[in-house]
């Protein structure tokens, strides 16, 4: 939810609250406010105290992130004045949080991303709670497919680092408390509260090679999340991070207006980030990708972005019947020798057929499911691999020669390079 900075005017609207005294069966002069049950008072105060304790203890671990990026734009009227291009400075804001005493800060990739050789903004600075100075930060690792990034502030006093402990997103239950921290609309160090509305919502997150989002599990919450909250933590009632706030459903954007919270926000489960942290810390400013099986798509088509992989659903039923292919699936074009796919016995193209606007591999395996989830695109296969580690297996259902079979692929070190 990276957005250009803009002046935000807050209009405070006073609401006059009127009360009507119901006098039926109440003698004059004896009207009293209805008694609040003791259990209700106690529960309300316990929840309030719990929220205040979380904020007091862990809000100092929240980080306000600012970015600057120089962008060269074509001036549509430049020809009138002997020019043609102009350089603009794009600014953005977001959130992040400390994950260890070394000062590593976890945030969303899209908070610091930019069209540059490094994939990150020219200048990234952070600011800590209660302090005015901005501190330059550098990229430790980027994971566009996961929409995650790790940065570290330079020359930061270790005494100012307050890590927020990571929880376990696999044990979440719908209805449990959720506290979101961040900088909505640039209003730094803001806190909202809600519940976990859904513990395993599937939405497109991250950025694939073809530009499409990768379907991943996400935590849905009604805790208010707005532009600027991206990268901030979502915490449970113990103050542990259960997710990294990343997206909202915004009717404003759909109607062509400014994005705003509509009670439906999403966070990346913290376990996905926990699994990725060691690789991000070792990336040396580079990009961390999802594990690779060692295969390439066998159906590719021409698009505005160039040649891109596609799923069988793109073809007509007549074409698939003629080629004896399933209705949906990912055609394998090439299998890399020595890769996990090759060791599992997956078969690549035996021949190739071109057609206007693309080409398709013939005689190869077609992946139709990965760990029980339907596959019809490279992104579907990536989604099944995102949270895998070295030594894990992925079970593929493939169609070979019109017959379906199961193939188990074991991920080794080569899958993570």
Radius of gyration: 26 Å
- CATH class membership of the largest domain: Mainly Beta
The termini sit apart by: 29 Å
The CATH topology label of the largest domain is Pdz3 Domain
Write down the overall geometry: globular
CATH homologous superfamily label of the largest domain: PDZ domain
Instruction: State the major sheet.
Output: 6 strands, antiparallel, barrel
GO molecular function, one term: serine-type endopeptidase activity
Protein name: Putative trypsin-like serine protease
Domain PDZ: 300-402
Keywords: Hydrolase, Protease
SSE topology sketch:
Elements: H1 38-58, E1 62-74, E2 85-98, E3 104-107, H2 109-112, E4 123-128, E5 135-143, E6 148-153, E7 177-182, E8 190-205, E9 214-221, E10 233-235, E11 241-248, H3 251-254, E12 265-269, H4 270-281, E13 295-297, E14 299-303, E15 306-309, H5 317-323, E16 330-335, H6 340-343, E17 351-355, E18 358-362, E19 366-370, E20 373-374, H7 378-385, E21 393-400, E22 403-410
Features:
hydrolase; 3 domains; 7 helices; Thrombin, subunit H; disordered N terminus; globular; Pdz3 Domain; alpha+beta
């Amino acid at each position: 939810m990276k957005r250009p900075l803009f002046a935000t005017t807050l209009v405070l609207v006073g609401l006059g609250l009127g009360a009507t005294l119901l006098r039926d069966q109440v003698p004059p002069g004896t009207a009293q406010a209805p008694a609040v049950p003791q259990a209700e008072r106690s529960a309300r105060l316990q929840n309030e105290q719990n929220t205040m304790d979380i904020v007091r203890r862990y809000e100092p671990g929240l980080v306000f992130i600012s970015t600057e990026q120089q962008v060269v734009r074509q001036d549509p009227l430049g020809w009138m004045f002997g020019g043609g291009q102009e350089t603009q400075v794009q600014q953005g804001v977001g959130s992040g949080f400390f994950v260890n005493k070394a000062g590593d800060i976890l945030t969303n990739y899209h908070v610091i991303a930019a069209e540059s050789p490094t994939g990150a903004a020219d200048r990234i600075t952070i600011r800590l709670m209660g302090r005015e100075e901005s501190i330059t930060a550098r990229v430790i690792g980027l994971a566009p497919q996961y929409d995650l990034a790790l940065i570290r502030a330079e020359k930061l006093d270790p005494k100012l680092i307050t890590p927020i402990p990571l929880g376990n997103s696999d044990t979440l239950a719908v209805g449990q408390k959720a506290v979101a921290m961040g900088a909505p609309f640039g209003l730094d160090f803001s806190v909202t509260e809600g519940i976990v509305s859904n513990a395993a919502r599937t939405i497109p997150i991250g950025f694939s090679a073809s530009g499409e989002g990768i379907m991943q599990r996400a935590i849905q919450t009604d805790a208010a999340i707005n532009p600027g909250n991206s990268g901030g933590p979502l915490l449970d009632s113990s103050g542990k991070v259960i997710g990294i706030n990343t997206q909202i459903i915004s009717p404003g954007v759909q109607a062509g207006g400014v994005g705003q919270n509509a009670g439906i926000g999403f966070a990346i489960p913290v376990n996905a980030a926990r699994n990725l942290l060691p690789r991000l810390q070792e990336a040396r400013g580079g990009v961390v990708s999802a594990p690779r099986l060692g295969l390439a798509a066998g159906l590719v088509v021409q698009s505005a972005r160039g040649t891109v992989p596609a799923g069988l659903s793109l073809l007509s039923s007549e074409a698939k019947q003629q080629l004896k292919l399933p209705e949906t699936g990912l055609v394998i074009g090439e299998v890399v020798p020595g890769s996990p796919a090759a060791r599992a016995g997956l078969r690549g193209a035996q021949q190739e057929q071109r057609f206007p606007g693309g080409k398709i591999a013939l005689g190869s395996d077609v992946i139709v499911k990965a760990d029980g989830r339907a596959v019809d695109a490279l992104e579907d296969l990536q989604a099944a691999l995102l949270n895998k580690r070295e030594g894990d297996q992925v079970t593929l259902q493939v169609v070979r020669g019109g017959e379906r079979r199961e193939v188990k692929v074991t991920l080794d070190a080569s899958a993570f390079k």
